């Protein structure tokens, strides 16, 4: 879907890559503009993406790799020393859950975030974003079994057949993030699902607006 793709690109730039200053992101954020492809092409050149605008999958993979590298670079010390014992405790979970009460299920950022996770984890797309979120939770839980954690902690050589060097590099970084990030992701997914279900179950909710009325 073209709109979802554009929202995803905007979300990556706004939340992770942040190559442009906020005031310079207007053209990229204007996803309904006829000139958006030109703005996106310029953005690709500005971040030195080696692929053409027609190569959608390769471009997405490259931008995700860039986002991962930047995320790791911003928090290198945190991730370098991360262990399974560094998972969030119950008190922190309760504090973090409160903002999700105001979650807007129709928010493009929410949809783009779920889509980004689904793409990273290679989960099939679904029209219902809550269904995709649940699928992501199941996959994360499976990867957090004792078996999976033991394997993740072992040193493994990245596949030599990886198509692009940037994905190869991203894979190495993701392995460093694996245990702590999966645990934190599982907590956030559970919180998001609870919040979304609470909104849907509330008879006062206007689903067309994604907001709670009086």
Automatic annotation (TrEMBL):
Ranges in coiled-coil conformation: none
Source species, domain of life: Eukaryota
Family to which the UniProt record says this protein belongs: Belongs to the RTRAF family.
Record's protein name: RNA transcription, translation and transport factor protein
Record organism: Pteruthius melanotis
Taxonomy of the source species: Eukaryota, Metazoa, Chordata, Craniata, Vertebrata
Encoding gene per record: Rtraf
């Amino acid at each position: 879907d073209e709109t979802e793709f554009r929202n995803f690109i905007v979300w990556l730039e706004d939340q992770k890559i942040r190559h442009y200053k906020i005031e310079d992101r207007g053209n990229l954020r204007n996803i309904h503009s006829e000139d958006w492809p030109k703005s996106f092409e310029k953005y690709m050149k500005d971040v030195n993406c080696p692929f053409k605008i027609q190569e959608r999958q390769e471009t997405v993979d490259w931008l995700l790799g860039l986002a991962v590298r930047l995320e790791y670079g911003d928090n290198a010390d945190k991730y370098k020393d991360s262990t399974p014992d560094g998972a969030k405790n119950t008190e922190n979970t309760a504090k973090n859950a409160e903002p999700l009460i105001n979650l807007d299920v129709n928010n493009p950022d929410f949809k783009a975030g779920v889509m980004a996770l689904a793409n990273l984890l290679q989960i099939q797309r679904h029209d219902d974003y809550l269904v995709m979120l649940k699928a992501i939770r199941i996959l994360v839980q499976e990867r957090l079994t004792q078996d999976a954690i033991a394997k993740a902690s072992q040193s493994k050589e990245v596949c030599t057949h990886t198509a692009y060097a940037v994905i190869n590099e991203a894979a190495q970084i993701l392995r460093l993030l694996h245990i702590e990030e999966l645990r934190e992701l599982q907590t956030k997914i559970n919180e998001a699902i609870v919040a979304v279900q609470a909104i849907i179950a509330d008879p006062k909710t206007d689903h067309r607006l994604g907001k709670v009325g009086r």
